Amino acid sequence: MIVAGAFAGTVGLAAGLGLWASGDDGGPAGAAGQPSDAGNAGASTVSGSGGRAPSPSRTYPLSQAPRTIPAVRSHTAAHGPGWRPARGKRVVVSDAGLADEGRLIASELGLTYAGEKGDARSGDVRLELNRGGGADPESYTMTVRGGRVIISAPADAGVFYGTRTLKQEVRGGSAAPEGVVRDEPAKPVRGFMLDIARKHFTAGWIEARVRELGDLKFNQLGLHFSDDQGFRIESGTHPEVVSREHLTKAQVRKIVALARSRHITVVPEIDSPGHLGAVLTAHPELQLRNAQGVAASGAVDISKPAAARIVDDLLDEYADLFPGDQWNLGGDEYRALMASSPETAYPQLAAAARQRYGSGANVADLTTGWLNDRADTVRAHGRTMRAWNDGFFRSSSVRPAADLRVAYWTGKEYGARQPLEYLSAGREVVNYNDEFLYYVLGQPNAFVYPTGQRIYEAWTPRVLRGTQAVPAKYDGQILGGSFAVWCDLANSQTEAQVAAGIRMPLRATVQKLWNPGPPKQSWARFKALADRLG
Fold this sequence. Notes:
The structure is a single chain. The chain is α/β, with parallel strands linked by helices. The two termini are 22 Å apart. The strands form three sheets. An eight-stranded parallel barrel has the order 8-9-10-13-14-15-16-18, surrounded by four helices. Strands 1-7-5-6-4-2-3 form a seven-stranded mixed β-sheet, covered by helices on one side. The chain has a two-stranded antiparallel sheet with strand order 11-12. The chain is 30% helix and 18% strand. Helix 2 (99-109) runs parallel beside helix 3 and helix 4 (203-215) runs parallel beside helix 5. The chain is built from 14 helices and 18 strands.
């Protein structure tokens, strides 16, 4: 039986949240707690969730911690009815800069957005900035007391994450439990990367993923939009390289704006000097060929200045489209360096290396120089850059730029190096471990679809390669991780199948990036919680 109570007329709200909310005193055990008549200790004097003051003789059990994904870091329990949404209750903010966060949570919970207000009413949700010096800008405190909710943080990102916790509390248990949540992420990089080059994903599908990522407190969305199979974003400088199925710039701007409203940075990637097959289809004169004239798949000839010019044109163009502070330069799987003797197989590259770097230079030096030159182009736009770990070549004369972060994905590449080589050199690393975090369509090359359970039970951010963790002393250099969808066999799954397949892996990944240490609940309970939260 659904009790109307304070929720009369809120059917639309309940349907939108994927739940039915009960009346004033119908909170489920484990959320705000049911009132009890046993004893006087902890008797509540705050206003009830429906705006009525509880009876002086009524007591409430001690609240239980909210059950959310990711789990909150700390909850101080208290006696009280908690808070639940009802039509007519307000969302107020302390600062005009929180209007986006305020309007969003108000619309999600069926509340009234009242803007900047200094008064306090029973039932209010108040969002405020405390601008505490030195605090993590993604941290927040949420206090449920006196029939009200206060979400306070040093920056709007933290306030936003507090509203995600509140939304999940209501969705999972119909009420926010009494007490104080203090929460912050363990890792500053919590990412999802999508290969839209090999498979065209519609703008609407990507937007749906952005909303999902935001609710889970992810903060980066990688878009790999150029590869051998396609170039998927409209271009003004080189329209000839763009595939028939692609996103328009207007669609990308909408995705970027939606992501920004969820405090998600979009990280673009134009991979080079390999994985440029779509560009080479329009510019075959730039194709890398070996001494016998055989084309190297997807690779441009980096001895040709025109190859650098076209890539730099594209990097400059898309810097305006993606205003975030992050960029992925790629750099992986350059075919020339997969040859047993690159200098013999590609004499033109060897000659160019010697001409630029001296008589002892080799093809790895020239390739590292290419990566550094592209870093110079992107750095001019004020970006922080990363490159795939197999783009950091063993090179005798040239070192990769000092500010490049390592996107560590594999230990299977030619001349593979252990993660410790990068960490001991002082590099910062983002974890893309292909043993756990690679969802490769069609499962080619011995890949298998990762499961949320395996990530939840066996992976941590320190597990960079295979299944072994690097020493704890390097934890601070591991900035976080990113779950990745690669579309090697693009037609193996539909968009809907991809969304379903990554649902639990995404939740397991963010749990391990937000909350350090072993999870406190079993996988079965975690999955049941995810099913309840939707």
